[in-house]
Request: fold
Amino acid sequence: MKFIMNTGRTVRQGKHIESKLGKAYGDETGTCYMHPMDMLALGVEANEKVKAFTEVGEVVLMAATDEGLPEGMIFIPYGRHCNAILSPTTHSTGMPDYKDTVVEIVPTDERRKSAAELMEEMGGVPYAEN
Amino acid sequence: MQKIEDMVCTFCGCLCDDVTLTVENNMIIAADNCCTVGNAKFMGKNRLKTPIRKKDGAWEKVSYEEAIDYTVETLLNADRPLMFGWSGTHGEAQCIGIHMNELIGGVIDSTTSVCHGPSILAIQEVGHPGCTLGQVKNRADLIIYWGSNPVEGHPRHMSRYTVYADGYFLENAFKERKVIVVDVRETESAKIADEFVRVKPGGDYAVLSALRAIVRGKGDVVPESVAGVSREQLFRVADLCTSCKFGALFFGLGLTMVKGKYKNVSNAIELVDELNRHTKFTLTPMRGHWNVYGSNEVFTWMTGYPYAVDFCRGVAFYNPGETSAIDILARKECDACLVVASDPGAHFPRACVEHLKDIPTIVIDPFQSLTTPVADLQIPVGVTGIDAEGAAYRMDGIPLKVNKVLHSDYPGDAEILSRIYERMMEVKGQ
Reply:
């Protein structure tokens, strides 16, 4: 199913902003909030995994319910997970479509990666002592 | 144990300046009056202890002197250096950054380009009918949050300045004030509004235009529904706006990060302009990083432009979309990057971060961030408001002095940047 990806700040994301390689931050930024009717249509329940695709990449996320969202829109807290599938196109404004990107969502059994693992996937090397 | 009052929280653009810190043995053991996020910032642990440099795919500790030498050599050898960040540091450090960028003929950009950059483009197009948050607190009887969710993004904004704040010129502020939230989703902020206006995604520009038409007396052109908002609700909102004594519109990234970008903000400003023919009305962007507004002030004093400033011609040049960080990285144009007090590794699209990994990237930040794994060098510094101090600008343009409470051996951002800049001058024989 196709959705509009909306990304934004949450208190939980902000609380862990200085320990982004930690589990709590990755758990929050790796969450895909969806309307319950969309989850029903997709056949996923809260705490089950979904995979999001765009033309630039794919990422596995944990589904969560948010009745405040309109049907057809997902919300992902700011962080590495949503940016893994975001195009850098800015339409000559300097600003990518952080709140207006079309994504394809399917249920999956694949493992959700942590923020650190997503960095390693790109060739990054986390510093082990912190 | 010592209690220190009126400290400034350096997390979001609210710059709450009523924080009480309890300090014992040169450690903060409690932070009062903060929101959850501010509290986490003051109580933060796991700072990087020394500069670290990546060699042959593994990190090793280096001295500050070695780190400075590597930074100077990397930036001076680059043909197209990018210096990004600046919103999470004090004004004095931003000043040095501008001088350094001029010396090396690079591009300097702040996180503005990925938050309210489009708002600045709109302000440059149609102006800014703004005011201080003190005016809003004491006078506003109508508050609008448009594309903004302060409960999550600016947790004390409502209690300090709007919904729950006392107002000097309002008898019973909490009862007298009306609150309108306009958003595509029903956020926690929307749940406490008197009027929640749910707009279909991408419909903000149309709804703003409809409200402008109604306020202008041309409501007969408005159809039964505009971007999912009924004609009846649009008239009700327009009536609330024209009948208030003092209205304040706060807008967030819900206007700047969707299609239309700066044109959405231009339309919001034009609505506020229209409303000022009926009553007093102001508009304020909900700035995110604690000193992102300061970066725009400092950049503008020193270069004439607020962000995305390119010195490759020897004089300042500004063209967001071309000279902004995302575009430069996506085009793989820069060949070295200095990241100061921000985290593009977390917040930039994948293609941009992959280019950061492919070029020499140097990070100046107290904590390991998601930029660290793709960087080649990180230099830890003090945290402004804890063990470093300097000037910052609140989201409404009010400058505040941010003091420190702890003593540490970490250099502040301004100190480390000064040392890098002085060394560059020596090498260049200036």
Q: What stands out?
A: Chain A touches chain B through 60 residues (CB under 8 Å).
